[in-house]
Amino acid sequence: MIDGVGGWSGERLVKRRSPQEKKRLSYAKDWRNDYGENDKSSRKNIPRSKRTPHRANRRRASQVLDAATGVVDEAAEETAEERLMAKRPKSWRKSRDAPLGEIVQHTLKRRMNLGIEDENRGAVRLRRVRQRLRQPVEGGSDEG
Description:
two-stranded antiparallel sheet; two-stranded antiparallel ribbon
């Protein structure tokens, strides 16, 4: 068995990819945080955001059930159960990240709209990104 670049890996042949193919795959398959916060902070913020509503739900349930402790009283039991089921539990869901190609396109458009980047240069760069993603190029007659 030959092992290495372009050789055999196990029992299958490893296909060599060109740099252009690698970049196209990166734009399509790599994902970036587009929520608007620092991507490094997500490491702490996502667990915190999951933890907070669960903690609030446990606290609320505990308070409602503490009111029903003591001597068995069916009215208090029913009241506690009704109060517990009356309010929907809090929840949190992570918003989905976006493909790198979409993030790059959005950034280029934003720079052109704000005047940070020259319109012509930005349009060329945007067209190049779309070509790499094999998306239709707007206003381009030089397709082919």
